[in-house]
Design brief:
By secondary structure, this protein is an alpha/beta fold. The protein is built from 21 helices and ten strands. One of its GO terms (molecular function) is ABC-type transporter activity.
């Protein structure tokens, strides 16, 4: 079972919360979210860790990009390298331009001397610009290809795993983190490319400075390291503060939704929750504001220290340049080139610093993606079954049990029963008795932990799973409101198969949905989601009719209907159960309902209690025998008796 939603967690504190200034005593503790993992990893990582992880992350990004599109990856890499070469050529050409212009010759001669280097400088700048355009074009084409590859692989996994995988908290958390990791793939590739560009820029400056004078290379490091240290330090502070504040931001997001959502507006007003929620907002924001002000102070202090140290180092560099000039070790033109190179080095080093952070963080998220993909394979059903699933003659359940990961008692415990073709069979019992879980096992949606289910004498595991499921239709009590038109919502019952509009209407009529649909603004073409333009809301009962129509459309050998009428009015409920009774003798139906009057016609009624099958028989037999069924039926019947 998954953890309760955060919105529900916050709402649950309304009754018990007491005024306090401490955030954690007002709002409950929240678990770490998937998108925090990369931030936590970066916040805990030192420079040594970053340096050790860098080669692996760069290699990972390159492999992803290469698999997605080799041509564009090659273009990006070659253009990045060539742009770096052009940077070096540009700096060296700048030096030659300055040498020519600063010479002692007449002005025309100086211009003539500098002209070839100026042409080289212009050419290098033009080539760099062209490389930038080519890189941008290649990346624009590479991005959707990388996204498509990783997204498709993730969705192939999430739609193929067994249903029981979603019962595990660890699997659900892994899947959330994998979704964030999926988004990180292209960011990882982009960060790697940007890091390469920044690194090549630094190397280009280093080459140019070595050509001018070897001492200037050390001077560059002295001048740029303080600012680089400040950038890494402030990034570390910001990451740690951001991570520490993630719970507050999530609470703010929840409170924003609770105070400004159409779904909560009525209850907010009905219970007078405005003051309570605004008080929650003030409590969280007071803490957040105080922490952000403290962060601003610390970041400003760190940057100021870096700037001062960098200023002192820069002064030392300029002192070195002056000494080299006075000593005659370098000409004035070379000194000017060194100044330009040092400015370029600062920019490139800042890029490298930022991209190292980004590469590490996104790499950790991508590790979540690859880890999930590996673990998901363990949850994919075995594909050994190859036998065809013929038309249903007999369904046999033998000593079937199933336990959920977080529950001590089994949800289904040693149940055995037989369902024959054409029968209408009912599962009844109190909440939590195992009815829905047993139905999911019969529908081949869950694998039992013990026992077997067979279709015409053949165990489910030996049958072709797709063929088997094609002969079964499930109308679930936990239906999903698919954001499509009314017609498409019904057509989902035969997704992928050609279905005429007449069949859709016939299924809707059997589910008492046709007239309701025709009253919608666009009939069957009405979009059933208010998120979109002209979308419409349906009531719970109206959605239940749409869901039942979806089940009737397939006209499968076995129809499982789990609480199909819980939100229907009496007239619609009677019509729906008449449609179910029409299947009797022709098709097989398993019916789960708490309204026991609707199962009196069933060929067999199976009564479950705490996962065990405690009674079986027809209505009259069970009433005559007494026991749990007779007790439940009598309690319901008393509610309809007129008072004396």
């Amino acid at each position: 079972m998954s953890a309760p939603s955060e919105a529900a967690t916050v709402t649950a504190t309304v009754a018990a919360a007491e005024p306090t200034s401490a955030v954690d005593s007002v709002l409950p503790k929240m678990r770490t979210m998937w998108w925090e993992e990369g931030l936590r990893a970066r916040a805990d990582a030192g420079l040594r860790t970053l340096a050790q992880a860098l080669p692996r992350l760069v290699g990972t990004a390159l492999r992803i990009a290469w698999r997605a599109d080799r041509a564009r990856t090659a273009i990006v890499l070659s253009c990045t390298v060539l742009a770096g070469v052009m940077s070096t050529a540009g700096l060296l050409a700048t030096q030659q331009v300055l040498v020519g212009l600063f010479s002692a010759a007449p002005t025309p001669d100086r211009v003539a001397t500098a002209l070839p280097a100026l042409v080289v400088l212009a050419g290098a700048a033009a080539v760099r610009a062209g490389m930038g355009i080519a890189t941008g074009y290649a990346l624009n084409g590479l991005t959707p290809r990388v996204d498509r590859e990783v997204q498709r692989r993730l969705f192939e996994a999430t739609t193929a795993v067994r249903l029981d995988a979603f019962d595990e908290d660890a699997f659900a958390d892994d899947m959330e983190r994998a979704a964030r990791g999926m988004d990180s793939v292209i960011r990882l590739v982009n960060a790697m490319m940007a890091l390469a560009a920044g690194t090549i820029g630094v190397l280009a400056v280093a080459v140019a400075l070595v050509v001018v004078h070897p001492l200037l290379l050390g001077a560059m490091l002295v001048a740029t390291v303080p600012n680089a240290w400040a950038a890494l330090k402030t990034g570390h502070l910001e990451y740690r503060t951001y991570l520490a504040g993630s719970v507050r931001r999530r609470r703010m997001w929840i409170l924003n939704r609770l105070m400004a959502d159409r779904l909560t507006a009525a209850e907010l007003r009905a219970y007078g929750l405005r003051g309570f929620l605004l008080g929650q907002y003030d409590t969280v924001m007071e803490t957040e504001t105080r922490i952000q002000l403290d962060l601003a102070r610390r970041v400003t202090t760190t940057n100021a220290l870096g700037a001062m140290a960098g200023g002192v180092a820069g002064g030392a560099v300029y002192g070195l340049l002056g000494w080299l000039l006075l000593d005659g070790a370098i000409p004035l033109a070379a000194a000017a080139t060194a100044v330009i190179a040092l400015q370029a080095a600062r920019h490139s080093l800042a890029t490298v610093t930022y991209q190292v952070d980004a590469l590490y963080m996104e790499g950790r998220h991508f590790d979540d993606y690859t880890g999930f993909m590996a673990r998901a394979r363990a949850h994919v059903p075995a594909t050994d079954g190859t036998l065809p699933a013929a038309e249903l003659e007999e369904l046999r359940v033998e000593a079937v049990s199933l336990s959920y990961p977080d529950r001590a008692a089994p949800a289904v415990d040693g149940v055995s029963l037989v369902v024959r073709a054409g029968q209408t069979v009912a599962f009844v019992g109190e909440n939590g008795s195992g009815k829905t879980t047993l139905a999911a096992i019969i529908a081949a949606l869950r694998e039992p932990s013990g026992g077997t289910v067979s279709w015409n004498g053949v165990p489910f595991a030996e049958l072709d799973a797709d063929q088997l499921r094609a002969r079964i239709t499930v109308v679930s009590q936990d239906y999903w409101k698919w954001p499509f038109t009314a017609e498409v919502n019904i057509r989902l019952g035969e997704a992928g198969a050609p279905v005429s509009h007449e069949r859709v209407e016939a299924a809707a009529s059997r589910a008492v949905a046709h007239d309701m649909i025709m009253q919608l603004p666009f009939g069957y073409d009405t979009l059933l989601d208010r998120t979109f333009a002209d979308g419409q809301d349906l009531s719970g009962g109206q959605w239940q009719r749409i869901t039942a129509a979806r089940g009737f459309l397939r006209d499968a050998d076995l129809l499982i209907m789990d609480e199909p009428s819980s939100a229907l009015d009496p007239r619609a409920e009677d019509a729906l159960f008449q449609a179910i009774r029409d299947r009797q003798g022709r098709r097989t139906t398993i019916l789960i309902t708490h309204r026991l009057a609707n199962v009196r016609h069933a060929d067999a009624i199976h009564v479950l209690h705490e996962g065990r099958l405690v009674q079986s028989g027809r209505h009259d037999e069970l009433m005559a025998a007494g026991g749990r069924y007779a007790e439940l039926f009598t309690i319901q019947a008393h509610g309809y008796l007129a008072a004396d």
